[in-house]
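Hi support team,

I submitted a single chain yesterday and got back a structure, but I'm not sure I'm reading the token output correctly. Could someone confirm the output below corresponds to the sequence I sent? I've pasted both exactly as they appear in my results page.

Thanks,
R.
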Amino acid sequence: MSSDGRHLEFCSKDLELVRSVKKCLNLNNKITQKQRGQIPKRWYHRIQFGNKELYNFFIKIGLHPNKSKNIKNLLIPDRYFPDFLRGLIDGDGHIHFFRHPESQFLQLNLRIISGSSSFLTWLKDYICDCFGVFGKVREVPRAYELNYYKRDSKIVFKKIYNSKRGPCLKRKFKTAELFFSEGGGIGKRASLRS
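Hi R., thanks for writing in. Yes, this is the structure output for that exact sequence:
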């Protein structure tokens, strides 16, 4: 969000995600590339546009310019929360597999990264209220992460990837879908996929 009260920029390493935002907002603006970091430099895809109404809506729900490290509670209506969370996982979430050291069964870990511990604490409580699952916030280098493990991750995925799901990253949906079955997901012989 620009400080001019009108212009917005969406930036991601994932081109599919930027194209999805462009399609959802019916934008004709060109997707360009942006360089971040110093050594090594990283390239990101971005789309910039002006929309005062959308900008004001973001302000109203609690977003603001330079929000990364000081974002707190957001006013997300309950009916839109699964869509909000799906988008947040697409942008700042990671789905990680690992094998249990004793059983060798494949385990699931959902992580959401943010520069603001206050935001993740609010998010953890909201997810608990809506879905009845319990996550843990911990500090990691230069950020914080909210973690959910196998059972709770599966519940989150079922809520956000329902039959009427909206736009989502295909690769993350396919990974989450591996754990939709009632039997607990993937067994010993399954291969790791991400």
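A quick pointer for reading it: The longest helix spans residues 117-131. Let us know if anything else looks off.

Best,
Support desk
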